[in-house]
Amino acid sequence: MAERPEDLNLPNAVITRIIKDMLPEGVAVAKEARCAIARAASVFVLFATSSANNLAQKHKKKTVSAQDVFSALKEMEFDKFIEPLQESLEVYKKSQQNKKEQKEAKAKAKKAEEAEKNSSTVEENSEDADMSNTMETSLSKKENDDVMEIAE
Amino acid sequence: MAGTEGEAVVGEELQGVEGDGEEGGRAGLRLPLARVKRIMKADPALQLASQDAVFVIAKATELFVESLVEEAYQYTRKAGRKTVSRRDVDNSVEAIDALAFLDGALDWS
Known about the structure:
The structure holds two protein chains of two kinds. Chain A is an all-alpha fold.
């Protein structure tokens, strides 16, 4: 399989883990079956994306929302997923909110610290610039790390 | 090929926070959000998607895998085997309406 920037595969290890967790002990999965399931998962992502996008566009929205995805899943006849998904989403949103608050608190604290250390206003300005650069770099670095972590 | 980060952008909200995967993990997510986002971007019609939307798709995909495995395993059991085969997966796809979108899709590489 060629490695291209648009690699549409999900990480094998994770798929295998999910499969194994569903099966009783002593049950194996043939490699071809595992590949087929992994491929099916990728196709599912595409299908769900396309369906959700169509719904969003129907309502003249440019951004696909979680609600669009729920509606799409209903259309795709995966109603049974909706309730557990809504629960998971709540947990996720909470943790995102926590992370955001932590970040803001940290930034605030750092700013206060720096302000105390440096009395000159010129330095303060460059500090702010440095900080925003650092945040941007660490944000993109994080995403890269995520991709690298799951490379096989 | 023209399509790159700049065009099928999946929204500003997506940059960064989902990077370390920890939050996804707390919501029981195992699939990496960045990878799911990458697949979504393959759709040229997609402009923007919220971070929550990406999460829901990722989580739904996990549920989908579980569901497909469960179905395939029924066939494995019926045949008295201990190894889930490609055939078991194919049979599931044929038998279930909701899986019709997979027809013929499992053979591209």
